[in-house]
Design brief:
mainly beta; 3-stranded mixed β-sheet; two-stranded antiparallel ribbon; 1 helix; 7 strands; 5% helix
Length: 81
């Protein structure tokens, strides 16, 4: 989603982290919104394709799928102790 703010274009999705991120070895993924909730409480099943960016976001639940070893598969920052 792109919103105009004071003449500048702001990409909101880039500013907000996804609620859940899953790593996958497949370019084609399926999402039905289930996971922490039963599938019956999710959303319609959709099939998504990971493009050259190395990730795809579900349009229903914003779950992010990242291709393992792809350009978006960055090492996780170390946890603060």
């Amino acid at each position: 989603m792109i919103v105009k703010a004071g003449g500048a274009r702001v990409r909101l999705l880039a500013m907000l982290p996804p609620p859940e991120t899953l790593r996958t070895k497949s370019l084609r993924v399926m999402c039905d919104g289930s996971g922490a909730v039963p599938a019956a409480l999710g959303h319609p099943r959709v099939y998504l394709h990971i493009d050259d960016s190395g990730f795809v976001d579900c349009g229903y639940c914003d779950r992010r799928f990242i291709l393992e070893g792809g350009p978006a598969d960055l090492p996780e920052p170390p946890e603060a102790s």
